[in-house]
């Protein structure tokens, strides 16, 4: 197949590392453990497959979908920044803004989206498409979803190993980091919107 002619280990490693840094599943461990305690169950397979499919679909039709509904990438990223901001506030302040009393599982929301395949990840995927070949980005996505699956599958073990006191501290720390990421995502994309729509 012609698509494999562009296969490159170097590009795969680069795509994997970039997406790995943006997804930051290791940094999300406190959130995952917290959700595990809250819902009692995380369907690792369902969350992983959903997140992987979202990233793959967005890789090929992301721009078309956003253009079709009249939304640009920067506006999409800003919307995602607000979602991440709310999650961060919940972690830092220990409050519940998003009411989830009727939910039975956190597998799709917020784990698959926006924790794994969030606005930052999806916009990064579109950025990679401009620089790397599709086949290598696909492999980068697959490798990341495998890693995400391993972390989610270990949620029970992580919950037992991480005590309540340690979890509380980690939640505050990573909540602040998540807050910083949301602000950075907002400011960077807001600046691009200003450049695009406002002429000084």
UniProtKB/TrEMBL annotation:
Membrane topology note: Multi-pass membrane protein
InterPro entries for this protein: Multi_antbiot-R_MarC (IPR002771)
UniProt signal peptide: none
Sorted UniProt keywords: Cell membrane, Membrane, Transmembrane, Transmembrane helix
Localization of this protein: Cell membrane
Main subcellular location of this protein, as a coarse class: membrane
Transmembrane segments: 12-35, 47-69, 75-95, 107-128, 134-152, 173-191
Pfam families membership: MarC
Keyword Transferase attributed: no
Family: Belongs to the UPF0056 (MarC) family.
NCBIfam families the UniProt entry points to: NAAT family transporter (TIGR00427)
Protein name: UPF0056 membrane protein
Organism of this sequence: Chryseobacterium profundimaris
């Amino acid at each position: 197949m012609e698509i494999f002619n562009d296969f490159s280990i170097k590009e795969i490693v680069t795509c994997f590392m970039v997406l790995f840094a943006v997804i930051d599943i290791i940094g999300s461990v406190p959130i995952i453990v917290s959700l595990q305690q809250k819902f009692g169950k995380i369907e690792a397979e369902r969350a992983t497959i959903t997140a992987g499919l979202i990233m793959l679909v967005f890789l090929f039709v992301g721009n078309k979908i956003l253009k079709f509904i009249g939304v640009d990438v920067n506006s999409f990223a800003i919307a995602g920044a607000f979602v991440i901001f709310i999650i961060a506030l919940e972690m830092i302040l220990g409050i519940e803004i998003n009411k989830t009393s009727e939910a039975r599982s956190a597998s799709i929301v917020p784990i698959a989206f926006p924790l794994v395949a969030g606005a930052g990840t999806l916009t990064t995927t579109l950025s990679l498409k401009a620089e790397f070949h599709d086949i290598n980005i696909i492999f980068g996505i697959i490798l990341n979803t495998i890693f995400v699956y391993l972390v989610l599958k270990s949620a029970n073990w992580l919950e037992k190993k991480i005590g309540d006191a340690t979890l509380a501290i980690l939640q505050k720390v990573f909540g602040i980091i998540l807050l910083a990421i949301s602000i950075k995502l907002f400011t960077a994309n807001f600046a691009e919107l200003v450049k695009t729509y406002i002429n000084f």
